[in-house]
Each structure stands twice: as C-alpha cells, then as structure tokens.
Amino acid sequence: MRALLIIVVLAIAGGRAHAYPQFQLTRDATCSGCHISPAGGGLLSENGMNTAEEISALGTNPEFMYGKIPTPEWLQLGGDLRGLWGYLQAPQRYLLGIPMQADIYGAATKGKFSLHVTVGMRPPQQDNEAATYVWAREHYVQWQQEAGAREGLFVRAGRFMPVFGLRWVEHPLYVRRYGGTPLFSDTYGVAAEYVTNRFEAHVTGFLKDPLIDPVRQNSGGAVYGELRLSDKTQIGAGGMVEVSSFDHKFRGALTAKQVLTDALLLQGELQVVNPHVSDYGYTQLVSEVMATYMAPKGLMIDLGWGHYDENIRIKDLDRDSIDLDVHFFATSHIELMIVNRVEFMALGKGGPTGAYSMLQGHYRL
What we know:
A hairpin with a 4-residue loop joins strand 9 and strand 10 (248-261).
C-alpha cells in the first residue's frame, strides 16, 4: 500500500510549468504568441507578461521579480514554485502536503540563436539519490528564422518534451499520462517547427535518455500540426512512433478547439494507440473533453471528462475521470487552484472509486 500511495502521489503532484492551452484562441492564436518557446511553456514573452497582468485580479508588474532585478537584453530569467495540499482517496483516505515544483528558467540570446536551460528539483532515483535531487529538465539550443519573432521556422536540439497533442498543463489527464507525454518524459531530440497565426507544424525526433534511468524508455518520432480555420476554430492531428527494447507503439491523435463565446471555450483530444509486444498487438483509446469558463476578476473554471481504455478487447478494463479545476489568478505572479477529481474503473464495476480535492499554490518568479 505504501508503494501504491507513492505512485498516486507522484502521478498527481509532480510539477511542470506548461502554458495553459485554454489561452490559445481566447488570448492569442499561438503558444509562441505568449512564450519564447515555439511549443509554449516556460518563459513568457512581453506579450505573455502583459497577458498575465491583464487576466489577474490585482495586476502587479509581470516582469521577473517584479522588475526589481534588472537583466541585460540578451538574458531572460524566470521560474515557477508550486505546492499542493489536500485530500486523497485511493481508496484509503489521506491528508497530504506535497512540494511540486521549484524550477529556474534562463534563456541567453545572440541574434537568431538562443540557449534555454531549466534547472530544478525532481524525485530522486533509487540508489542514486544524492546526484538526482536536482537536474536540468530542459536544456536546448534554438535557431529561429527571424530573431525575436513569434512566427516562422524554429529548430531546436537538446533536451525537451516532444511536441504532441494539445500540450495540457494538467499532467494527471489521461491524454498526458497515457498519451505520449507523461510527466518527466522530456528527453534528448531535435525538432523542426514552423509557426504562423494560420497554422503550425512540429516534427520531433527523440532518443532514450542515455544519462539517467528515464521515464521515457523509448526512442522515436512525433509529428503534430494545427490549422486555425478562423479566429475561433482550430483543428489538429498528429502521429507518434515509440520503440523500446521490449515493445513499440504507434499512436494517432485528433484535436479541436472552439471558442463558443468570449468567455467559454470547448477543446478536446482523441488518441488511438496501437502497442505491440513481440507479435501481439492491441488497441487503446485515450481522450479528454474540457469546457473552460473564463470569468472576470481572475477566475477560470475547467470541467473535463477523460476516458482511457487500456485494451478495447477486454471488458471492464476502461477508466473514466471527471475533473473540476478552479483557478484564481490573484496577481500576475500568484495563482491559486482548487483541483478536484473523481475516477471510476469500468464505471464502478472494475474496482473502488478514487478521488482527490486539493489546493495548489503557484508563484511565478
């Protein structure tokens, strides 16, 4: 039971600062419109900092350390701190307090080239704790077609997460956990990415991390693209191949976003996964549908339904989740969240129901 608790805690509590895909279309056409990375996440651009100030209830200077620590033009710094406290039923009941994330970001730019580094804490590896409490989760060199631009061709080489799907920030969602981008699965690779307001395409080749015992035990490639049919409608599609010493997987994904009103967004992702172990192959389904209401005064509410069928040939092996997350952007640097989930195995026929309700604090440096 102790091992089960540790697995559940790591599944819901590990930290990673992505961009919220809820802001794409509702705030800007692309992730690179608010972030210096073409895939989103991490350091904010000037437009991203202005957005952080505008959506928050109290505003405040959105720059790094409120602009109190100046940096040269060629250097950009940032970071994220997160913690989580609350109730977990798995099916035993626990009260938990968990440090989630403590990451520092840096990007040094010279013309069309930039070096990006993320340094922070991580769960230590067994028998190698002393050397694995801290790591550089991301470190890559980037070239872009036009220096400082949000559109155009980007090429990256180094350690980062392969670009695939809607890039949800909530890593407990099935489309993250079982959809090719689980927590801590950043790995070494090369990506070519072309981004415009009308469409974007990402091609990534990646290798199993040769330096540590990684979460991602495979090498392969991913292709993902998005087409914006209008300023309120987007569709996307992608494919990924993963090969390891014991299996290989093929996955395909379809995504969509629709702005229904100025304050209401609907988005979804469906993946069909075909794993093969030796000569045996089977089919999995992974999906998520989420509605987001962007209320005034810094409030954002997400209601999502997730489905994961581990093998469609076997009855009652599927699971479903209902997520209700309430975000409060108090200032341009402080976010408070109440995250809630109820999870069913085969709609209650496959085992006990699990749940959690927790308060998360997020501080952006």
